[in-house]
Design a protein that fits this description.
- This protein is 46% helix and 17% strand.
- The longest helix is centred in the first third of the chain and has 33 residues.
- The strands form 3 sheets. Strands 2, 3, 4, 8, 9 and 10 form a 6-stranded parallel beta sheet that branches. The protein has a 3-stranded parallel beta sheet with strand order 1-7-6.
- It is built from 8 helices and 11 strands.
- The chain folds into 2 domains: 35 residues; 204 residues, Glycoside hydrolase/deacetylase (TIM Barrel, Alpha-Beta Barrel).
- Helix 2 packs parallel to helix 7, helix 4 packs across helix 5 and helix 6 runs parallel beside helix 7.
- The structure holds zinc ion.
- Zinc ion binds next to strand 2.
- It is found in: Cell membrane.
- It is a lipid-anchor; GPI-anchor.
- One of its GO terms (biological process) is carbohydrate metabolic process.
């Protein structure tokens, strides 16, 4: 090989090494990013023949009637609570739901769109509800539903750090987006007529018609269709709580 060609080959090998080195250097941060654990996102129940009826935005005055309707059909509900639940009436409703055997979970504190918040603020939104549930009920929830169903990788990373699964839904009764009770009932009729193996249903306990009309209607139809109406935790076969203790005594820290 002539000396000029040998030199050229040496230069090419050197260039290849430099290129490899640069690729390794520049790709190191995205690789680390991908290694961040993301929380599990639940959009469906997995246990066959189950329906999980979920209720967001409470605890509100209709919670008692929602619970009574569920129990009348041997059903367990899941409540995603948010807001200042230290208020005496609200705390009473939270404890009532838990003591009646329903699952209590977090809908975060101030109903902010978590995808617009910083890492610290996302944790603050999550931590406040978890602490309140620990004081009021004595449990730390293992499930969280983000307001509006909105999440991004930062939200999922924060949830993973807090050992929580993120719960969305695969059926919306549309009670929070202006559906009339008749429309919500028709939505339930349609899904039940298709008879999917499972249903994870979104409802809002703050609407009087959801508590007094749509829910009793849906419970009757679901029950006749032969579904087991269970909590989200049960329908996916995971523990509802990270910790189960006893309610604390109200003190000066129970404030918003
Ligand atoms: Zn909500």
């Amino acid at each position: 090989m002539p000396p000029s060609l040998r030199h050229l080959r040496f230069v090419m090998i050197l260039q290849a090494f430099v290129a490899l080195f640069l690729v390794a250097l520049t790709s190191s941060s995205p690789v680390v990013e991908k290694r961040q654990t993301l929380a599990r996102v639940i959009t469906k129940c997995t246990k066959p023949n189950t329906v999980a009826l979920t209720f967001d935005d409470g605890p509100w005055v209709y919670l008692y009637d929602v619970s009574k309707a569920l129990i009348a059909y041997n059903a367990t509900g899941t409540f995603f609570f948010n807001g200042c639940i230290y208020d005496a009436d609200e705390a009473k409703r939270v404890l009532y739901a838990y003591q009646k055997g329903h699952q209590v979970a977090s809908h975060t504190w101030s109903h902010s769109d978590l995808t617009t918040l910083s890492w610290d603020n996302i944790h603050d939104e999550m931590w406040r509800v978890e602490q309140a549930l620990q004081k009021i009920v004595g449990v730390v929830p293992a499930f969280m539903r983000p307001p509006y169903g909105n999440y991004n990788d930062l939200v999922l990373q924060a949830s993973a750090v807090r050992n929580q699964s993120v719960v969305i839904w695969d059926f919306d009764s549309e009670d929070s987006i202006g559906a009339t009770p008749a429309q919500s009932e028709s939505d339930y009729d349609q899904i039940i007529s298709k008879h999917p193996s499972t249903i994870l249903a979104l409802n809002h306990e703050i609407h009087e018609t959801t508590a007094h009309q749509v829910l009793p209607y849906a419970l009757d139809k679901l029950s006749k269709a032969g579904y087991n109406m269970v909590s989200v935790a049960e329908c996916v076969g995971l523990p509802a709580y990270q910790f189960i203790g006893s309610p604390e005594i109200r003190d000066s820290t129970w404030h918003c």
